[in-house]
Amino acid sequence: MSALLDVILPVFLVIGFGYAAARWMGFKDTSVDGVMHFAQGFALPLLLFASIARLDLGRAYDPGLMLSFYIGAFAGFAAGFLAGRYLFGREVTDSIAFGFVGLFSNSLLLGVPITERAYGPGALEGNFAIISVHAPVFYAFGITLMELARSRGLGLSAATLSRQVLRAIFSQPLVIGILVGFAVNLSGLPMPGHRRAIGRIAGPASRHHLDAGNLGLRA
Fold first, then answer.
1. 125 in Cβ contact with 133 (< 8 Å)
2. Cα angle at 173 between 48 and 91, to 5 degrees?
3. Domains of the chain: which residue ranges?
4. Which residues does 40 contact at the CB level (< 8 Å), separation at least 6?
5. Which pTM was predicted?
6. Rounded-to-integer distance, Cα 119 and Cα 115, Å
């Protein structure tokens, strides 16, 4: 009970406050859009960049940890897809969207703050190891399936389909932040002195988790 109150309850109080702000306190949809654009387009990509650039790759990538997470994630996709297709009788594209929802857990915006509160900042290596391949793998998987389903009967070549998938994946700010973080980490280049500026921009994502949708701001 103590862990529930000390670790999990504060996170969901923030979610409840976000919902209340949009529902009853005049927080407008335009403001929600601005917060989400900043968080997902700037703060979170920089948080991932800074975290992965400093990550001890050899220690963080534990096979058991990765398997336990990704087996569960793909099982969630399968459950969502099969439910959409056979339980609700939806089209393949709709069923893939159902599966995509089951594929993605909130491992960044809820997983990171809950782990940090429970075990401290030093325990976040596993979280960032998962997240570092989370977006590229899941986006590649989901977008490829969706593009294949949409292209049925259109006669698209493999090259055209590949370009569409790659464009969709590498236009994601989160993926860009992850890849640049890996580039800095693997190159061995030291983080420059102005990393504090990066930290100030990424700070709202790491301390307050300003994803408006996940904070309940969509009433």
1. no
2. 115
3. 44-206
4. 173, 174, 211
5. 0.72
6. 6
